[in-house]
Amino acid sequence: MQRRVIESRWQSEVWELAGVLPGYTGALEPRVIVNEPDTVQWLYPAFDIVLRRAEAQGYFHNVSTAVPNVFVLWRMEEERAVPHYVTVSYDEASRWMDGGAQVDSVAMPHAMRDWVGDFVERHYHPEPKKRSRPQSFLAPKDRGLA
Fold first, then answer.
1. Range(s) of the domain holding residue 24
2. Is residue 141 domain-resident?
3. What is the mean pLDDT of the segment spanning 96-108?
């Protein structure tokens, strides 16, 4: 997470997601990794992404876009932005935002995109489209026009 100083009459700083580090293996406690006058970055390394079959459609929606993303739900705690959940499911992130949560996204790293794409290929099976009869072939009473 990153805090940047901005020039605005309404606020003096903005918190945003700066990036994700797939495969990180260092210490697990949050810590400052950049501390400059206008920018401070915090590393929160204790997050794993576990892919679930129930979210396969959401992963498909994400990796089938031009720029797939990693989504992070975060909250302000004691004047600091703290991430709480991480997902690569477009649908899950949409549900979070519909619930009013603060969610930021960053471009998904290529290795992660390949991993999610492989999961989608193995587990996402779209339901076949059902052909519906054109309304013109139904009697008016069956079209709801009676």
1. 2-125
2. no
3. 96
DSSP-assigned letter for residue 22: T
Number of compact structural domains in the chain = 1
**Gap between the Cα atoms of 90 and 73, Å rounded:** 12
Exposed / middle / buried, residue 123 (Cβ in 10 Å: 0-12, 13-18, 19+): middle
This prediction's pTM:
0.83
Inside any domain, residue 135: no
Which positions ≥6 away from 98 have C-beta within 8 Å?
none
Q: Where are the beta strands (DSSP E) in the chain?
A: 2-5, 13-16, 31-35, 39-43, 69-77, 80-87, 102-107
CA–CA distance, 101 with 42 (Å, rounded to integer): 20
Q: Is residue 133 part of a domain?
A: no
Digit-coded pLDDT (tens) for 35-76: 999 999 999 998 989 999 999 999 999 999 999 999 999 999
